[in-house]
Amino acid sequence: MKKVEITRTRRLPYTGNVGVKIGQEVNCTDIIAEMNYFPAYVKRINVSKKLAIKPSRLEQVSLVEVGDIVSKDAPIAFSSRWGDPRSVNSTENSIVGIISKHLGMIYLRKLTEFNQSPREVFDIKSIMGINDSFAKRSIVVREGQKVTPGQIIAQNIWKDKDMNLQQIETNLFGVVEDISENVIIIKNRLREQSLKAYLCGKVIDIVDNIAVTIKSEGTIINGIFGVGGERSGRIRPVNCSCLGDKHIKDSDQGKILVSRGHLGEKALKKASSVGVAAIVAPSCKLSTIRRHVDKDFVPSITGSEDVQVGIIIINGFLKSVLAEELWDTVSSSDESYASVNGKTHIRAGAIRPELIIFN
Amino acid sequence: MDNKKYYVVTDVGSTTTKAMLITYHGERYRVIARVDAPTTVEEPYQDVTLGVEKALYELSKRSNVKLLDREDGLLEKVEYYSSSSAGGGLQILVIGLFSKITASSAQKAALGAGAILIDVISNDDQKTLYEKIDSINQARPDMILLTGGIDGGDDIFVAEFAEIINSANPKPRFGDTLKLPVVYAGNKAAAPIIADTLSDNFDLHIVDNLRPEIDREVLEPARQKIHELFMSHVMQQAPGYKKLINLVSADILATPLAFGNIIKALSVEEDVDIIAVDIGGATTDIFSVIDSKVNRTVSANLGMSYSIANILEHTSIENIKRWLPFDITNDLLEDLVGEKMLNPTKLPETITHLFIEHAIAREAIKLSIKHHKELVFGFSEGRGETIEDNKRKDIFASDDSIDMVSVGLIIGSGGVISHAPKRSQAVAILIDAYELRGVTRLALDKEFMMPHLGVLAQNHPEIALEVLKNDCFIPLGTVVSGFGQTDDRIVAKVEVFHNGKNHFLEIEAGELKVYSLKKYEEVLVTISVKKGIDVGAGSGNSMKANMFGGEVGLVFDMRKCKGSKEVVANPENHHLELTAFSEDDIAESRRWISEKSRDYED
Predict the structure, then answer these.
(1) Structural domain boundaries, residue A267
(2) Chosen from A142, A346, A352 to mutate, greatest number of chain B CBs within 10 A
(3) What are the pLDDT digits (tens) for B242-255?
(4) Within this chain, do residues A93 and A158 fall inside the same structural domain, yes or no?
(5) A128 and A87 in one domain?
(6) Hey, which of A233, A307, B207, B462 would disulfide with A277, CB 3.0 to 4.6 Å?
(7) For the complex shown, is ipTM > 0.95?
């Protein structure tokens, strides 16, 4: 199979720091950029109510403009009407999103520091110091719901001498994984702070704070279906009719295994325990992939699965072997660097997974 | 000198421009030539008229009729019409307050105008404000339909949505520098706020509220405005359409709108309710004309290739298996369905693949009809506007929100139905999927010609209907579907007066029988039923009616006459009686499954 020139622009989801220079040679496993923070939850500040003014006067009392960055407790609006000076302050470090003169509100988008924790666990009963039934009524999210940093996941109002408001917020861009016995578990779905090069090549362009373009040369092999996002590492070809656990070695940690034959479930389990980066194979049963992903999913859009081992399927779900030409290319690339991306969109834009070999 | 008038009609699709030539020939209007040409909307051509021109030359060649002149373009004897879904059709982002109320009405208005919904955003859709802004920002619609609030009601939410749209600053799909059209069809009291918020940055159009009262919908002004904008704004931006607009003798219609036009005309002429299905690779469209009102829904993730695996998820694997005349493990069935999704353009390789595709098609149509009933006749219809509507609501309150007895015609189109190797297979799919009641004719739109005729019907409804009935439809036959409960084994006795003789059939509960009757043959059929059984004339009432034949003939389906609501499937007998599949087909599929199953023994 022929080598081709490959140029890709690598982009952070939100602005951060770029750590390479134009002309620099990079390896596919190198980190080239990192995010610092990103905009998250939107909070509505009812300025007209707080200042007792008509909404239409908001623009006259506002101290900020759309796009301004404001720190926590900084004043965002001020009025001295009737000799009664009052101000409204930002509740968070934020970006000003909307200033609505019809609603009298300012919308602030919280700036959140990057959080790499895989999960957050909130025992609502113990954090709030309340009983079971009150804790149950305080939970305001449901299983499967996506949440963003700053979002309230439990709240209650209770009265002793005064009215008391208790609120618990998440710090993650996550999804509510489980709620049982008043314990909320939130799984982080935005854990990658850094951006890797993915290609072995030369940096040819940089957009400040957000993007890097790399030019490379390699052999691209497209699969038909994959799971897991980008992985890079050294290749090890495995010549077998069906990849089993006996084919996986401890030294395969971080590697990309390319099997000539069908990928079996036992091999996948062993690969997960060893820490293999990805397996490329001609076929693998859908039910095996589902168990690996731990989800009864419909495989039309993939790539964001939280799996130890990425999978790239070349032919399909029914048992098969790699085509001769393809196997020849792979078998002559032992220990070469390679990158894989399991991202598959069967519809929109028909994105198929890929294996790129750099040798 | 040829004084005849010629009607050229094209449907400009994303990949193919389908053209037909209609004229008066042999005592009636008929299609005298049909051709396909590649659509030239994308690079390197970026001029849709190039593909249209090519199609016209091919039509000329095939029909031996000169249609074009190098200097003057179309000749005077030619009238030209076109529908279009090129570049993904008319793509709309719908925003409403509540998903079951205004957002639902807005969906109906947009779908009724022939649009594709790229997203539906509402206050109760469980997206956070942050996600709403992101969704709107990332969408590249042709226009936004913003609704919300009954007249004089709450204006805060809709004002907030206007602010969100402004903040998200979405760009139109075509023409980055142009203002994105926004149609506001919500609370009229909020219209000044909307105008003040959006008119600087968007091409804002304010029309009547499509939900002025909680139980009243007024969809037409919004639909009309969407269509006008489609012509004046979206079409003007699409490559080459400015030229095309100057060539046509009536508006260019979005393809689904044209489809709706023609079935409405047919429903009015034949005085019958109609349901049509177009089952594609990625989506399934359902059209219904009930009491002359056209409704359309698009089940965006139910299709026979790209989204085939979604059908498995939305129904159940057991529901698929009930239509198969062989045993198959869940793992193997899922892998076969998954492979179809991975190779969406691949045709069925074996008879087993065909069985499975047809089984899935039944469930896809069932799910799409359910979706259609929920969206069109669900809560949002409110109390209805007339007593008749209220009666219908009583029917909707039951499981069946469309009174299938009143549906006299089912039209099927889309690859899995049109290209089924045997017409009887198409019949089997349709009767199982629809759960028919009473007497229903079945027809096939094999070449998907209905959009052409819908666009022609703008100026020439009689010609369009004549061609529709004679050249477009392939009549499949008539189905008599009984339902109800009785203790007797024989539930219906049928007398068919055919070729000067009476022919008698006895049909048992749970049985399906076919009487062979050719296309365009009409016979008098008398059906006597047992107490408790209904074939559309009321429980226990006999029926006498003229019925039409077709590729399959008359089908008497008494499978629901056991008190069971669901069709009782005995796939083997059922396929054999309809001659949809043979005994050899079934044996071959069993052998194939047995061979493949060996790979799954571990």
Answers:
(1) 223-358
(2) A346
(3) 889 889 999 999 88
(4) no
(5) no
(6) A233
(7) no
